[in-house]
Amino acid sequence: MIKLYYAPHTCSLASHIALEEAGADYSTVRIDFAKQEQRGEEYIAINPKGRVPAMATDRGILTETPAMLAFIAQTFPRARLAPVEDAFAFAQVQAFNSFLCSTVHVAHAHRMRGYR
Length: 116
Description:
- The chain is an alpha+beta fold.
- The chain has helices spanning about 10-20, 40-45, 65-75, 85-110; strands spanning about 1-5, 25-30, 55, 60-65.
- It is globular, with a radius of gyration of 14 Å.
């Protein structure tokens, strides 16, 4: 079963939505930023980057939203979250997701957490 490590008001919401839309069997673990849980030993053992999201799968841990969204889309192709049967179209989705993470997300993250 998939386990999603998330925190409210973060980009982990994208993976959470994708898991719901895919009809996946999953559980969630909330990481409390106010308590600095993302820097605690227990979470660092899961994601040494100390960031959310992280996703535990039967094959290991995944981090980084574009990778997690691709995994969800490919694991649950019937949900049609991405055009997994067309390599070029799938790459276009990946390009858009990467743009969101490297450009849009950066601006948003600093707005809410200026200390970063």
